[in-house]
Amino acid sequence: MAFFYYTYDTTIGNTLISGATGSSAPLPSGLSEIFIDFEPKYKQPLFLYRESGGTIVGNTDANVVLYEEKYNPPEPTDFVTQLELSGETVVTNQRFTNIEEFVGYNPTGTTNVITVDKSGGEDFVSVKEAVDSITGSTVDNPWLVYVNAGIYDENPFIIPPYVTIEGIGSTIAPLDENNPLITASGNTTLREIGLQTPNTSFAVDVVGSDVKIGSIDVTGSGNGVRMTDVSGVTVNDGIFRTGLANSLTIDNSVVELFNVDAVGSTSILATNFAYVNMTDVITSGVYGIDMTNNAIINFNNIRIPSATIGVRLTNGANISGYGSAWKFAGGTQPTLSANTDVLTCVSDGTSLYTAALADFS
């Protein structure tokens, strides 16, 4: 835990203006202080957040504009920078060194912000209600839904295009155990949130292209994320915990996985001409990676520490890697077998053994 003293300005909607390890009291009129375990997401500046009811939540566009006017008014000599980020145009008079600092920052007012808090006091108490209220979301009219801390029991809902859901210490759990909890349309983002799976379905069903999933923590006995007939999908910093059936199901889709830790009966299932680029991925389970029906995986730094069958390839599946290596549990060195196009791995319960492709021809 990392507790800090955050100073906020009560004259502009309790917008955060500074943070320190020690108290700044006594404070001048118009300023107050909160001591809390909080860290800005994606290296965002503090003014994108505000104090609300003893906690910290996402700020509003109106407050951000007031902050800029009060603390950083533009000078005639300032440069104006315009960037394209995740489908929205960001215009600012500030000079940032990291593009991630622009996430959620849009003083032009074109991003619509909704805050969900199950205890009340914000726009909605339900994530589904918040998402269902959104109409007219487009590349020029994106929406951002902040989900404050807590566990939210929800019926299935669909994230419309150009909508981002971002959690702040929150988890979404299913009321319906037989249908996908969240369906992601194209050009959507889901990040910084915990997900509990329905018993017989998926936590997230991706049905549109250009979907970004980042920093999710998936638990339960059902399935994690399914991607079907889509492209441009990225899963970054995902944790899929013990007990899941299939952590990631990739069906006839083009997908990139970065820094993913997946445990499931089948950790990663790629099928039907799926094309997957994997970097810094850890898999475990009965099948670490199961590939079939002409699926292709390109890898860079894959670890399979404790799968019964590390990698299974059937029906024309192919796997390749460059500038990296597979890392398996310790044991007898594998023997290369000639004239085979299958990489097979078996475990004796302690170590994992593999027979590797001889010549990649």
- Report the uncertain regions: 76-110, 329-342, 357-361
Q: Any idea what the radius of gyration is?
A: 23 Å
Straight-line distance between termini: 52 Å
Helix content: under 10%
Strand content: over 45%
What is the count of β-strands?
Answer: 27
Q: Which architecture of the largest domain would the CATH scheme give at its second level?
A: 3 Solenoid
Shape: elongated
CATH superfamily of the largest domain: Single-stranded right-handed beta-helix, Pectin lyase-like
Integer average pLDDT: 79
Which quaternary structure do these chains form? single chain
Characterize the biggest β-sheet: 18 strands, parallel
CATH fold label of the largest domain:
Pectate Lyase C-like
Question: Would you tell me the structural class of the helices and strands?
Answer: mainly beta
Structural features, described:
With 361 residues, this protein is mostly beta strands. It has 2 domains: 3-102, no CATH class; 112-355, 3 Solenoid (Pectate Lyase C-like), CATH 2.160.20. It has 2 helices and 27 strands. The strands form 5 sheets. The protein has an 18-stranded parallel beta sheet that branches. Strands 2-1-3 form a 3-stranded antiparallel beta sheet. Strands 4-5 form a two-stranded antiparallel ribbon. The chain is elongated.
Please describe the structure with a list of short key phrases separated by commas or semicolons.
elongated, 18-stranded parallel beta sheet, Pectate Lyase C-like, disordered C terminus, 2 helices, three-stranded antiparallel beta sheet, 5% helix, mainly beta, 2 domains, 361 residues
